[in-house]
């Protein structure tokens, strides 16, 4: 059995990354709170409406009174239509035959948060999905030699603790245990001409646990002002799995891999104007250069493929507002711009056809009584048209463009006890 060493897991054979289907930059999922969703996550590290703040800033738990339990969910409906504009096979100087396709699939993202208190310490537990999506292209689409199937599931368990250091300053810290499970497929060109026939299949399956930490500060320089600053560490995944070839045009083998899932820093401000209105703003930096690119080597140290993705660090900016319409009803809205880490069209894999996105969000929260609250939100994401001129082997060139958009519906139930 041949053993294959993969120097990065996410994106292997361009098979793990799937950012056009996810809703933060790269292949991250920002959908971690329905109340935050209604704001386009503006001010996420300073907004302490409920215990979901712990994902963005564990110090915010000090502003959530008593005990709280949150169950949330997000329904994500993306579109990512690829139009072929002359994909070609360089060896035979011929066009690659195949159809256009939309690999996007509807996704479901759950969240769970618990908040408790012991003396002066505020405790939290979050279980959520920081990365994950399913992209499925037709077996005959024109980009099949780069990707047909990507199915990634991740789960993050995040206990946290926080405390007020002074009357105006809080500090919080958390630990993270993150599980990743993935299945990735693509076609292999076994023919000698245009690739219209003679395709094989390459399938990778792998899973892994990785560990990290997060911490944050929440400062209240004035009664009406909150400033939040937080950091979430890189999580290194060392995965093991298998690679299978059908038919047996190569020898199946075991695989191992290492990937750095990116660090993230958030700076947020919340400004209150009386009891009716709050203005929120934020900036998020994601260190996508931690991920970079992928090189696959065999046991002899020879490179099998290089994804040539060259991810760059990215920024996200957001602005939102909360209006207390009645004692029971709260209205939210927000705007954001999310810059892509994909540097140019030659690094845009069909598993990462990411482009800069603009967010528009609306939300509402209704308080049934002192213990029970329900939040809803809707977001539409406008994505820039993204060009593709991509190859990993200097033989199969995918040339075209993606037209993308996303609709997200979110809801969460908040129980105070």
TrEMBL record:
Primary residence: membrane
Membrane topology, as annotated: Multi-pass membrane protein
Cellular component annotations (GO), alphabetically ordered: cell outer membrane
InterPro entries: OMPP1/FadL/TodX (IPR005017)
Signal peptide start-end: 1-22
The keyword Coiled coil is assigned to this record: no
Keyword Coiled coil: no
Keywords: Cell outer membrane, Membrane, Signal, Transmembrane, Transmembrane beta strand
Superkingdom of the organism of origin: Bacteria
Subcellular location(s) of the protein: Cell outer membrane
GO molecular function: long-chain fatty acid transporting porin activity
Family, as annotated: Belongs to the OmpP1/FadL family.
Record protein name field: 47 kDa outer membrane protein
Natural source organism: Hydrogenovibrio crunogenus
Source lineage: Bacteria, Pseudomonadati, Pseudomonadota, Gammaproteobacteria, Thiotrichales
